[in-house]
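haha ok so turns out i had the wrong file open the whole time. this is the CORRECT one, sorry everyone. sequence first:
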Amino acid sequence: MRARLYSLLAYRLIATVGSSIRTRPLDRLSDLAPGLALSVVIAAAAWLTASVETRLLGRPVIEALVLAILFGTLVRTIKAPSSRVMRGVSFTAKQLLEVAVLLLGISVDLPLLVRAGPALAVGIVLLVVIGLSCSYLIARVVGLPHPLAVLIACGNAICGNSAIAAVAPVIGADAEHVASSIAFTAILGVAVVLGLPLLVQPLGLSFYQYGVLAGLTVYAVPQVLAAAFPVSVLSGQVATLVKLVRVLMLGPVVIFFALRHRIARTGNGEAAPRLALTSLVPWFIVGFIALAGLRSAGVIPLPIVEPTRTVSGWLTIAAMAALGLGVDVRAVTRAGGRVVAAVIASLAVLIGLSIALIHLLGIQ
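then structure:
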């Protein structure tokens, strides 16, 4: 059984990387190389800068994860990469990040992370539902159309751009709506990464509490890592687990909107889009939980934990750089004032709900 599980995870890991180099390996690798190289160079610059900070100040004022996002955004602002370069950047931001999150499962102490019990899992589900409803109402109140309001609500309540990209096809959203919601969500996501750690002292949060807060509020998985790990390793691990549970809500939400839209289109005599059920639960989340369980059961040898954590860390920094390269600061000016207002207000409500949940559950 154990050997079979290892084999399945190894196969999926190889398949993820291999899917991008399946048909003509050298040609595909050549196509991805510029974007991969750019992401790695930016990641190395971020790591070196953090190392200099440590040497001069005793610790990095801004961690390498955050620096990678900032450097990537700066490069993108100065000169947007070509479409060919962006293919490798997208691969780094998605596939390599998925591998990094998967490997992170080996280094987590699952019993410690789930000490809040099933109440936290129930709270996460309720928070997503309430946050999604509040965000949708806010977007409608400021005058945004239904499709755009749905996209903003899903991006805010679940997982940012990934949720927007997953929900957009099933509700028939226009390209303009998708672009507007993604543009400001990406920018605000970076702002949250930089600003959320500043709440630790004023709110008197423990590392565990902050990890829960980051996992409940920050949009994308890479942004959660960047917002939480610089505070503490425990915060990063808790935030990752909470965030992955939150991401699992994407499946039910996509099914809900797909069925709702299917009924509406069928009533109008239109063909409804097909629902790809296989994409509702990301493979790397299953792998993360499986590896965390194996580590807690003592199946995974301790000597491989630290090297695996190091590899996961390097892949994550590279993914942060790629994430920054995908942020178009200028897009904020094109998103429109109502979108800006809806996203900021939705985020404020989500943070408030998350803090209330932490105190309601008595999480320490």
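DSSP finds 18 helices and no strands in the chain.
again sry for the mixup
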